[in-house]
Design brief:
This protein is an all-alpha fold. The chain contains four helices and no strands.
């Protein structure tokens, strides 16, 4: 049944395993890139105040603090990932030779 599901989605078992390995590796690399990202109560309160009228009109901060912390932490991690990838792109721009047809957009 699993292999039938893969086949229906256009995957072989080998391509599924390869995709899974790449996904796990990407997650590990990005986790390492943003392992020092933190949020503090000022970040949480700023987010709460900015979004209180639309998202939390009748909800006290204490009730949504954990949810806000997860959201703000995810946002900061995403920003850290983008910055890390941009930094890598700049650092290795002149050190990578792309195969014809695989150049990044705008090259």
């Amino acid at each position: 049944k699993f292999q039938q599901s893969l086949k229906a989605q256009g995957f072989s078992l080998a391509t599924f395993k390869q995709s899974l390995r790449a996904s796990v590796l990407t997650r590990k690399v990005l986790a390492a890139a943003n392992r020092n990202v933190t949020v503090d109560d000022r970040d949480l309160m700023a987010y709460y105040k900015l979004n209180r009228a639309t998202k939390y009109p009748d909800t006290p901060f204490k009730q949504v603090k954990d949810s806000i912390q997860a959201t703000v932490l995810d946002q900061k991690r995403a920003e850290a990932n983008v910055a890390w990838i941009q930094n890598l792109s700049i650092r290795y721009e002149d050190k990578v030779d792309y195969a014809k047809g695989f150049e990044p957009p705008g090259s």
